[in-house]
Fold these 2 entries.
Entry 1:
Amino acid sequence: MATNRRKSRSKTAAPGEDARLPASGHELLGYYREMLTIRRFEEKAGQLYGMGLIGGFCHLYIGQEAVCTGIKYGLRGDDSIITGYRCHGFMLARGAAPGAVMAELTGRASGVSRGKGGSMHMFDQEHAFYGGHGIVGAQVPLGVGLALSHKYLANGKVSAACFGEGAANQGQVYEAFNMASLWHLPVIFVIENNQYAMGTSIARAKSGTEMFERGTSFGIPGRQVDGMDVLAVKQAIEEAALNSREGNGPALLEMMTYRYRGHSMSDPAKYRSKEEVSKVRHEHDAIDMVRTRLLDESHATEEALKEIDREVKAVVAEAADYAQSEPEPDAVELWTDVMHAV
Amino acid sequence: MATNRRKSRSKTAAPGEDARLPASGHELLGYYREMLTIRRFEEKAGQLYGMGLIGGFCHLYIGQEAVCTGIKYGLRGDDSIITGYRCHGFMLARGAAPGAVMAELTGRASGVSRGKGGSMHMFDQEHAFYGGHGIVGAQVPLGVGLALSHKYLANGKVSAACFGEGAANQGQVYEAFNMASLWHLPVIFVIENNQYAMGTSIARAKSGTEMFERGTSFGIPGRQVDGMDVLAVKQAIEEAALNSREGNGPALLEMMTYRYRGHSMSDPAKYRSKEEVSKVRHEHDAIDMVRTRLLDESHATEEALKEIDREVKAVVAEAADYAQSEPEPDAVELWTDVMHAV
Amino acid sequence: MPALTVREALRDAMAEEMRADPLVFLMGEEVAEYQGAYKISQGLLEEFGPARVIDTPITEAGFAGIGVGAAFGGLRPIIEFMTFNFAMQAIDQLVNSAGKTLYMTGGIQSCPIVFRGPNGPAARVAAQHSQCYASWYGQVPGLKVVAPYSAADAKGLLKSAIRDPNPVVFLENELLYGQSFEVPEGEDYLVPIGEAAVLRPGADVTIVAFSRMVGHALAAAETLAGEGIEAEVIDLRSIRPLDSETILASVRRTHRLITVEEGWAFAGIGAEIGAIVMEHAFDELDAPVARIAGADVPMPYAANLEKLALPQPEQIVQAARNACYVE
Amino acid sequence: MPALTVREALRDAMAEEMRADPLVFLMGEEVAEYQGAYKISQGLLEEFGPARVIDTPITEAGFAGIGVGAAFGGLRPIIEFMTFNFAMQAIDQLVNSAGKTLYMTGGIQSCPIVFRGPNGPAARVAAQHSQCYASWYGQVPGLKVVAPYSAADAKGLLKSAIRDPNPVVFLENELLYGQSFEVPEGEDYLVPIGEAAVLRPGADVTIVAFSRMVGHALAAAETLAGEGIEAEVIDLRSIRPLDSETILASVRRTHRLITVEEGWAFAGIGAEIGAIVMEHAFDELDAPVARIAGADVPMPYAANLEKLALPQPEQIVQAARNACYVE
Ligand SMILES: Cc1ncc(C[n+]2csc(CCOP(=O)(O)OP(=O)(O)O)c2C)c(N)n1
Ligand SMILES: Cc1ncc(C[n+]2csc(CCOP(=O)(O)OP(=O)(O)O)c2C)c(N)n1
Ligand SMILES: [Mg+2]
Ligand SMILES: [Mg+2]
């Protein structure tokens, strides 16, 4: 086993405290741009929600950008990924057009799900992203099913099944652990531990040891990873994927991360202090960490990064414009896609 | 913690190989009689089934008698017990009249559930036995709920939630583990590991470590117990109950046992060899072990034990007669007990 | 009478019953410290403490089962599902463990428990969060099923449900939580389970609805009155037992019946009501019973499609006109 | 035509489709080494090996979800539930993950999967093992629901279900497994989903049934013929889509309708059929649609009570006499 059961680094480790993982300037610039795109996209979605252009539940990914970005780069492009309702970041990371994602949020015909799924239900088959699921924990067996299909088809692919630390208490997760391990399926269970499930801190919902050890009795090696460090996420995923691809079965990775916003747009997040949020934001932010390193290691100038910021803003602004100007689905769409014709 | 996480003895330990747990002759004679009553009762039920007097599913407890008997004596009389469909032994152990239990099996008005529940659905509120449940695993959260009621009422009681090693893979079991541990509920999870879930041997359904370790990551100490040794079962339950009663939360006990018959009356049990069954029967039978000790330690003569056998047979024969001669429920019973009137 | 929102009425019902009976407690996701995902349990943790207002992990099957076990053990649990969509994870515990045990045990084992939470569509929450489960639970003998519209009924029925010795599935509606209604004062205000209410008398056509659709039915009746059609509006309130007497009595007067529900028509509550009327008042019907129901599709997210998927008052008006053979 | 049991017909359907399409596989409890709890998968492990005939632990939510995920990944799973009672543990995966995904994704993500197993009452297995789920699943747009009676339909419909690009809930009946029927030969014998079958023509009254109750309907028709009443017997075969055309055409001829089901009447399939007939052929009805259904109680264990809880041919006969206004 390449992975091990001990924490690889703790979430409170200050940036730069650990030895930095190797990465080229080109690579780091890519992460910077992609994570920033997700953040700006989500900020814009929040604004559109406030303007009444997006409805229902809308769960922003702000703070967690390193997780989906690290997963993307730790996997091959055709490895499958599945997650819950907090899925916008994954859509963007895997390559969906920001305009089409935003148009889904505004419920337009040119949205990725043609306006029918909304924030929680986005799929991108071209990029092997399988949603976008609203029922907490349900995506975990689905992700194991994708792994079963990979093994069955012997296509060498791996499946990443992502879920929150709150979802990690759901019974079907353990059923999925058992079968994945029993059948040596190529699946990486990724817990995005952002410390809260809605208003419930992890300590109030979880008994026993740390989450990454919850697979141990099912024979699944677990590891805690700094989910704010895109390189750490990427490396942990790479190792687990390699191991799974070799037929050694599943791994469990607990990504220590944090969400800066409320659970969804309707959550004022009174269950934690402003200081708690701002401490993470200022001391251990995923994007800042890459930014600092880019400057430290002279891969980029302040000006070059500002230019990226401007470009990202333009991309997101364009997506927002598109999402507001596109038409709603045609009324006849109410009745389509219920069933495939035989 | 009085319990510990290591096996206390392995299931393959030969009788008498370990130091014998202390027990008076009087005590041992009681266990002998009670376990024998269960076995003879179940044999008789099997006969009545063969005669068409019992219908549907009928899961016999033959081979596992030491588990329910040890649980009974390890607990106080008002501690609650709950189990699955393999429940006849528990009914008898807790003190239900054999005739009323058998009459339930034959579907008669004087059955413990007035003929409406049958083999799988027997309760005995007077003796704090809460069934008798047909859905694999469902009784586990129910048992935790009983523990919650004990804690809420501060009545000093403990709950024993019994389930098979097959049921131990069910997701709701882990949900129950988590909440029981988080809330320090007085519940003893008892896995009756009889090696098979219907036709599936434990190795074909379970990944990872031994079953008794499945609670570890939820902070629940686990222990493997020789489930054929009524004294070992009793002692393990006593220790766990004491600990739970003191407010230290749940424990998990894995009782290593074996069922001699098919899963239910319709199972020819072709998935294992006759030799496997007869080896356990001859080398590690719960009743034989007590019998041997009674003779060894001169607590009873062969003749005295034969007399008990005769008495037990008479009790069971009487139960069978009763169950065949009692009338079926009145037709009006179809419509009663659906709801309490308000 | 003071005006209360449905949210306040539900909270007051629980608070009053918890004051009256120390065996009553509330358990569910975010019910305690967060005061309820939809703030139904506002103030309860403060008043009753963490032993009686219990936050759970996101494990519906587990805590529903724990609730049933606690009821077996003599307590009177109120189990909140954040929405009934998530109760599908636990539906076996509701149906098999709570609903069937009294019968299976020949009357030995009671299960006094309330399962409550929002049911049916909310706003823009799409297919997985918008299902109505009234007819599923309504089908099961051994369960009582309630689905109030007004705050008064919400309060009176929830108090009855908590006192009921049987398991009760209590279906709320998120979009009603903020609506205000007059509510009779006093801790003794109870609404019995199993009785429908005639909210508006009328001689020409009967409209039966439950939960949020009662508002639509009343709006439609208002429009119809302007056209000279007097619609009688019946709020079902309880799904099981279903008050067929009130419906039949009305149909015997109006000879016309429209049913309204947000869920799917197929084997829905409207179908059941139609069947009952057919069985008991076939000769009284001057027009076929018309069902207004949610479109036969999973709930779409887009605002325009969602509106098309849900029953609108205008559809009820049109159905009533048709039943009265008015152009 | 050779006679096959329903058991053999189901096995043959799976075997043929597995031979024809390497993406088809079977997964469930005891399906492989044990050859199926009810021996439906006899011989399949031997022929197709453990990669395609997969024994699971007793974890319905998990393996149903794994099945759906595998279907997302391009396979064509057949998921066997030992009985549909246990599928309640997994019902969220069937409804929310399998049934709604195509719609939620605007047509992007298909889910070609079959969920099959015995549904409804067996013999003496009591309340928790005897429920009929036809109307629950039938209510959900996005699912197809099938419930065959004969071995020929079992085979032809299961083959269609396996080839269908949509999720199909395939409801079998344990008591039919051992019954023999003639089955057309050939691997191309398919029965399309969504078409009812007129099993016996008759001019006086229509009897609609599905699954095991078709046998009762045929028996009742035989008795009625002796009394001079010619009953038309329709085997529904599919629950969703429901073949209203065939039912309506028959009612337009007989003007009388009896529905038969083993499940509870409340919001059942009979209620739905009644509603459809009311909506489309109200003026054709010379008598109210009568529902014969399981008694409104959890299933009792005692032999005499169980019999009373289940529809009997004599009840159908009496309902038909009533509909024809014959003493
Ligand atoms: C089965 C189920 N129960 C409850 C909910 C409501 N709900 C949606 S998200 C959520 C919290 C999940 O927390 P976590 O798993 O930590 O993920 P995060 O939101 O932090 O990403 C809850 C309770 C749901 N969608 N599904
Ligand atoms: C949820 C559910 N799935 C499947 C079944 C069918 N079933 C009844 S008993 C059983 C095997 C259980 O094995 P185990 O838990 O080891 O208990 P044992 O029978 O050995 O006592 C199965 C699969 C069921 N009753 N409930
Ligand atoms: Mg979280
Ligand atoms: Mg077992």
Note: The pocket of thiamine diphosphate (ligand 2) is lined by residues B 86, 134-136, 164-167, 192, 194, 196-198, 263; D 29, 58, 60, 82, 86, 89 (CB under 6 Å).
Entry 2:
Amino acid sequence: MPIGHDGYQVGTGFKAILRRDLTSVWRNRSDIASPLVFFLISITLLPLGVDPSDKLLAVIAPGMIWIMALLATLLSLDSLFRQDYDDGSLTQFILSPQPLYLTVLAKVIVHWLTTGLPLALIAPVLGVMLSLPAGGYWPLVLSLIIGTAIMSLIGAMGAALTVCLRSSALVLTLIVMPLYLPVLIIGSNTVSSSVAGFGAAQGLALLGAALAMALLVMPVAAAGALRISSNH
Amino acid sequence: MPIGHDGYQVGTGFKAILRRDLTSVWRNRSDIASPLVFFLISITLLPLGVDPSDKLLAVIAPGMIWIMALLATLLSLDSLFRQDYDDGSLTQFILSPQPLYLTVLAKVIVHWLTTGLPLALIAPVLGVMLSLPAGGYWPLVLSLIIGTAIMSLIGAMGAALTVCLRSSALVLTLIVMPLYLPVLIIGSNTVSSSVAGFGAAQGLALLGAALAMALLVMPVAAAGALRISSNH
Amino acid sequence: MSEPLLTLNNLSCERDSRTLFSGVHYSCPPGTLLQIVGFNGAGKTTLLHTVAGLLPAACGDVRWRGRPIAQQRQAFYQDLLYLGHQVPVKPQLSVRENLLWLGALNTPATEAAIAAALVEVDLAGFEDSPCYALSAGQKRRVLLAQLYLSRAALWILDEPFTAIDKSGVLKLEAAMARHATNGGVVLFTSHQPLAMAEFTTLDLSAFQLSEQPSEEAI
Amino acid sequence: MSEPLLTLNNLSCERDSRTLFSGVHYSCPPGTLLQIVGFNGAGKTTLLHTVAGLLPAACGDVRWRGRPIAQQRQAFYQDLLYLGHQVPVKPQLSVRENLLWLGALNTPATEAAIAAALVEVDLAGFEDSPCYALSAGQKRRVLLAQLYLSRAALWILDEPFTAIDKSGVLKLEAAMARHATNGGVVLFTSHQPLAMAEFTTLDLSAFQLSEQPSEEAI
Amino acid sequence: MAWQWFHRLGSPRWFYEKSSRWLVWFAPLSIALMLVGIGWGLGFAPIDSKQGDSYRIIFIHMPAAALALAGYYIMAIAGAVGLIWKMKLPFMVMKSAAPIGAALTILTLATGSLWGHPTWGTFWEWDARNIFMLVLLFLYAGIVVLAEVYPSRDAADKACAILALVGTINVPIIYKSVDWWYSLHQPASIKLTGGSTIHSSMLYPLLVCILAYYCFYTLALILYTRREILVREARTSWVLELAQGQGKSNKAGDGL
Ligand code: HEM
Ligand SMILES: Nc1ncnc2c1ncn2[C@@H]1O[C@H](COP(=O)(O)OP(=O)(O)OP(=O)(O)O)[C@@H](O)[C@H]1O
Ligand SMILES: Nc1ncnc2c1ncn2[C@@H]1O[C@H](COP(=O)(O)OP(=O)(O)OP(=O)(O)O)[C@@H](O)[C@H]1O
Ligand SMILES: [Mg+2]
Ligand SMILES: [Mg+2]
């Protein structure tokens, strides 16, 4: 090969990482099914652990679905950068002319497409199981779609900070949970306030603003953290 | 070194693995704190997602504490054999004259000492936060002590089965959850029935019987699963 | 003494139902120093895994002191020291602690023996360093220290010279030769040219393809 | 042509605030084939990491085409190909897919180029095999295929001969020599004796301890 | 000139030597202020008409809460300075600030619950401020744990700084959202004493207490940072000299 470049086009790597991770996920298809199953199972646990009368369930439904979506996202975070770190792909990301920000963004997008989005789409089924009142379905799906995207972004920062640790699952939880809290509160309130007849517009607008901010801040923070982790 | 043995004493390895893992945990002391923190945080999430009035909380308290203990155990399972698998320690375990059963048992004991036991001991604090009625504290602690031990044992089998998979956290959930369900049901019923004044003896006896059975079956199953995973 | 310790008895190995080699007959009396050779992907690691009982043989069996290993796992594993591609060393534990637990799985080691072994592998002074702070070669040397601690008769070493510097390689070769003269058996692989004088080689290419049709003919 | 491409300018490196070596001056004009030598733990990997900008230098800096790399990361990384101890190859993807994404990070590769490169590393026919089914040496060969695909001027190779068989080592040495004659720079480490004729060595032992007192005197 | 001063400030050795001189008068001052403030508040301020003596916890509780929050920002700013100017000392300050902040948060929570028992009738209430304090504790704990578990010190410093910085954006958001959550749910069943109507005989001791807490916080931060400096610079020549000097003076002291 002759030496010398005609200029690296930013974005090539972005597309390649997107394609690579989507292909990997497609090869292990069960990975997409698993967060869903976790979500389903833990919602099923609920009536087993607590009194399963309709009224009680309906009161706690929006909060519970949101909490379980949060936990399902959390469970899948650890593997976000783990394999890339262990096999040295991360070093290659850093040593590429492509800005690390874009690489992180590609990985977050794949994570959300394979975790958050399916969760949001299946949530109405769980709503039925927990007898969520009729007005709550659309707000539930929409708030989950935006909310899981924010949680994937925040989670990317947490995963990047903990990727060089031995047993990171729980440190990750500690770091990420307090940041998830506002998302959870706004999200579950959006659903319950629209069930109560107050509309969901305000909550969704808040979530949208949070998403915009997370998009700006989190991949940068994650990229910084990855650089630190790589030279352990 | 001269060649030839005066006979390997079964149990040497058991003690060594116990010491090794306890030392490792002690070096990363935060590992013990983290399941606790997860437990604390997720209980804190609860009143944020649902209506935090005293009455409602008191009703769902036993079930919720049990569900969160279950999830905390679940979260920490993935790392049970992961590192040993990745760095080849597992091969050394298999190639040792010590029965694999004992090695697994040593690892399960360490897991329980560092996860289940602290959870059970801190549970009363969470009981206060969720306004659990007074009669429930002892049954809560006792049922959690036995229950988390059972869950560690079942989890060891699940972790062993999934250790050779890429992203195992969610497949693991799938395998382990159905087995955790009876433990969860018995455990949370023990607490709520003793709150209601029916006593906890029957529930605790059931849990004890389950523990004895799990002790017999699970390490053997886990050892078999580890042998299979090792020759990928 | 001429009775073979280890016997590969008409051994065939498969991966993904593709036969890698078949009909390997070899017997190793005490004192054997055997290098398995073959190009990348020939099946050397597969062979060593099979000998250690980690992979099932497609056909044939492995015998230790005359009996198939499947019938006497515990006794066989007491006699076996296996070092593979991977480095089973816990990063957060110190060098000494790692050797203690590794030893306890087979030949429990005393503190004094460990100190002596670390001198042999040029890690004296590193007893208490955590293993994450070691270089690639130093980590492998921690493993190699086991050679000076173990009392196993059979050593299986998969590319033991990886990442080891020149003086280290010489010492290691000497240790392997000594084990053989003491009446042990060493099976190893390596792609590096070696300075050792006396060792036999088993070339896996000789058991490939050419043998395969005869398999199908059966 | 005599203007150096890569310059190590009074470079010192630390690990855990222990100075490994200090005062390394070296300039590599186009055509340099430089082996870093040193015993296990001398700091070869640390040096290569520092040159690649993965670790901060304790003192001094690394310059590429005359400018410190910290000021021109993107341009420098366009010119850099780094292969370390680890094997960044996804087990579930095929050989071709892996080379595609690795290439996209630096020099996007066409299908035809990949096929040609795989022939060079003796992996023709393995294009569509998943990488988990490759042997240790074959996995490293997938990485080495990048040498035939990349247009980077600077190659940094940390023990590239690990797990590669004899014929593979010869081919690899030829590729490295060719890159140097084409006007590139190759930095590599290895503990194996090499057949190549023309390369210079940089011995890290020369920059240890003896230099340290002078540091404190400043 | 100013720049030079700034960089000297980043030198741990300079800080250690200077702070030895500050401590001579600063330590007694802050301890004295603390005693005066707490003593005035607990001993001499008048009894509250509604709550009796239990309200006196406010002299410990309220300043602790205020500082726990301020401490987070001090920590984050130190981290930012360290990241931007690549200096060692700010990282040490940051690392020291985390456990102090966590301790203050725990103090707030503990005194609050103790106070809650007589006033609310329960140790814990899911009230917006309580939740916020609990989350602040988790934020601190995240940084303490992260600093502890990272294998290398430099990496730990930078990682904690990133987390602290992200936290600064999040602290107000958490505060707002918890407040919002609170206002959407049922109204508070028990109102706290109105903040503005506090009587001056209680206000003055409270102000002294706040001042005392600030001084005490600074003192603790300096002491922690000095300890951290000694641990980290243990291998440098100046610390070795210091240790030798102290060893000698100790021996001399023993001789006397
Ligand atoms: C665990 C329980 C509690 C927590 C976490 C807590 C938290 C806080 C916080 C964060 C502040 C500072 C507010 C600020 O500086 O703006 C504060 C101030 C205060 N707290 Fe508490 N508190 C608790 C319990 C109580 C109780 C039971 C009472 C009395 C009935 C009380 C009375 C006050 C008063 C009077 C102030 C000062 C007034 C003000 O600045 O708003 N707190 N508390
Ligand atoms: N992550 C780390 N933290 C602390 N110290 C380290 C770390 N990695 C390596 N070291 C130390 O730095 C020194 C140099 O390590 P390095 O990996 O650069 O050696 P090397 O020359 O590449 O050796 P090898 O030939 O074994 O690969 C070693 O003595 C080691 O103890
Ligand atoms: N896990 C696996 N699943 C399926 N096939 C495999 C697996 N591991 C190896 N193979 C195949 O088996 C063959 C032999 O692999 P093996 O690892 O035994 O080779 P090797 O001789 O040790 O090579 P090397 O010198 O590269 O280490 C290879 O062709 C490889 O494709
Ligand atoms: Mg091999
Ligand atoms: Mg190295």
Note: Chain E has a mean pLDDT of 82.
